[in-house]
Amino acid sequence: MIHKVSRNLYERLREEHADLTTRGRISAAEKIARAREHGDLKENGDYHAAKDEHGHMEGRIRQLESILENVEIVEPPADGSVGFGTIVTVLYDGDDPSMAESYLIGHIEEQCESAEVMSPTSPLGAALLGAKKDDIVTYAAPNGNLKVKIIGIQQQ
């Protein structure tokens, strides 16, 4: 599976992977070693907590490796349309303008303080791709078709 990510996300994930595989592994090994010094491992809560933490970290490392090994860096569209890496502000049909919602179209690992992340493969995300400001987009939702008006588009 190819993971489409923004350049910012790619760099952040590479840095996290490098940190976990160096500093993180050293720190986890030190915690486990210190916990072992407390005696009987069967009843040693610190040891079990350190081992659990190490296991979670190794799981995250494997997750990062899976993404980074199968990655495609996608740039936001240059024509001002909605695409991967854009923040789109929409207003649902019938809602007051104060109820507008903003979404960052991108990978689940993306982060944005001002918008919720939305997958470009979700029903609304897919419907928004390629649309421009002031377009009205219809998409299929569980309770029927919904319409949204695009009231703003910006690059992350």
TrEMBL record:
UniProt-recorded Gene Ontology molecular function terms: DNA binding; RNA polymerase binding
Residue stretches making up the Transcription elongation factor GreA/GreB C-terminal domain: 79-154
Transcription elongation factor GreA/GreB N-terminal domain span: 5-73
Entry keyword annotation includes Methyltransferase: no
Regions crossing the membrane: none
This protein's UniProt keywords: DNA-binding, Transcription, Transcription regulation
Pfam families found in the cross-reference section: GreA_GreB, GreA_GreB_N
Keyword match rRNA processing: no
PROSITE patterns named in the record: GREAB_2
A GO biological process held by the record: DNA-templated transcription elongation
Role description: Necessary for efficient RNA polymerase transcription elongation past template-encoded arresting sites. The arresting sites in DNA have the property of trapping a certain fraction of elongating RNA polymerases that pass through, resulting in locked ternary complexes. Cleavage of the nascent transcript by cleavage factors such as GreA or GreB allows the resumption of elongation from the new 3'terminus. GreA releases sequences of 2 to 3 nucleotides.
Matches recorded under HAMAP family: GreA_GreB
Family stated for the protein in its record: Belongs to the GreA/GreB family.
Protein name (record): Transcription elongation factor GreA
Biological source species: freshwater metagenome
